[in-house]
Amino acid sequence: MQFTAAQIALMINGKVEGDASAAVGSFGKIEEAKQGQLAFLANPKYEEFLYTTGASVIIVNDSLELKQPVTAALIRVPDAYSAFAVLLQKYQELMRQQLQGIQQPSFIATSAKLGDKVFIGAFTYISEHVEIGNNVKIYPGAFIGNNVKINDNSILYPGVKIYHDCIIGKNVTIHAGTVIGSDGFGFAPQQDGSYKKVPQIGNVVVEDFVEVGANATIDRATIGSTIIKAGAKLDNLIQVAHNVEVGNNTVIAAQAGVSGSTKIGNNVMIGGQAGIVGHIHIADGSKINAQSGVSKSIKNPNTAVTGTPAYDYTSALRSQALSRKLPELEKKIAELEKLVQQLMTEKVVE
User: For the chain, what are the domain ranges?
Assistant: First the structure.
């Protein structure tokens, strides 16, 4: 499938400079692109490649001033990086629209309801009373448990497992290997030292426009729901425990873990490998640095914390700066002690 520079400019509200009929059928990095490919230039340090690339069409910033002639057609936009992202999204959506039908072998229960333009990949298992909305794409090897509901335009990549009774909103993306709705870690200690499993009878609710990375796990609630609210973005290899709530537009980086019943506010940023204990609250707009251990609630909005246990980010930086000076401070203290001792000796002699 090919598009001209003029057609692409219409998609991203850009202006063509050069041959508007130049056609492209694929994408390429500006330093490697060949004829018939589209590239973009956003970072000035790659500008040298603008004059040597083989790309036929290049998206550039309005502010770019050419130092020499270029052979490619240019599409000028206010922000080349954002425009290129929009274009990639449109291209991806176009490719997905072509993906329809039910591949075999796969199992679909007779009680399941499928919407229009659905794609079901081979070796997928869809259980009883499942509801799948319009334009949902489920890639091969997925498992959908009883009574699961998946709303319009959502995508489940290969090997995704969604346990019974869970609800997936609209425009949700779940990447390969992720498990949603597995049992929460609930065990009651017994007098003989053993542990008795506490049944986990709740579910997981993933709201609209959420993205969950590969091999993440989101546990079902003991009672009620574990909730990932609209717009949240979860990276790969994340553990979200039972009855946790993750707020709107909160982002969590890879290998972070959130313990049971913790409530995370809106627009929170959590760095990679951070650990959060259970039954606490994280205020809106909080920022938790990578590898931090959060052991108590963050009550004030827009607070930044770091360290284990995590505490105020600015104070932590001061402490780190001081710790680097400890050898120098130790030397000065030793010199002061020596001076004091000398003065005391001189006073005794007098």
Answer: 3-97, 101-314, 321-349
Q: What is the pLDDT of residues 84-100, one digit of tens each?
A: 999 998 888 877 777 89
Instruction: For residue 195, give every residue at least 6 positions away whose Cβ sits within 8 Å of its Cβ, in sequence order, or none.
Output: 187, 188, 189
Predicted local distance difference test score (pLDDT) of residue 274: 97
List the catalytic residues. 242
pLDDT in tens, 126-143: 999 999 999 999 999 999
Rg (C-alpha) for the chain, rounded Å, is: 28
Rounded distance between C-alpha atoms, residue 179 and residue 237, angstroms: 11
pLDDT tens for each residue of 192-245: 999 999 999 999 999 999 999 999 999 999 999 999 999 999 999 999 999 999
Asked if residue 275 lies in contact with residue 256, where contact means CB atoms within 8 angstroms, the answer is yes
What is the tens place of the pLDDT at every residue in 105-128? 999 999 999 999 999 999 999 999
- DSSP 8-state code for residue 110: T
Report how far residue 347's alpha carbon sits from residue 19's, in angstroms, rounded to the nearest whole number. Answer: 93
How far apart (Å, rounded) are the C-alpha atoms in residues 161 and 143?
5
The helices-and-strands tally (H runs, E runs) of the chain is 4, 40
CATH number of 3-97, picked from 3.40.50.1580, 1.10.3720.10, 3.40.1390.10, 3.20.20.210: 3.40.1390.10
Please state whether 174 falls in left (phi above 0), alpha (psi between -120 and 50) or beta. Answer: beta
Hey, what CATH topology would domain 101-314 get? UDP N-Acetylglucosamine Acyltransferase; domain 1 (2.160.10)
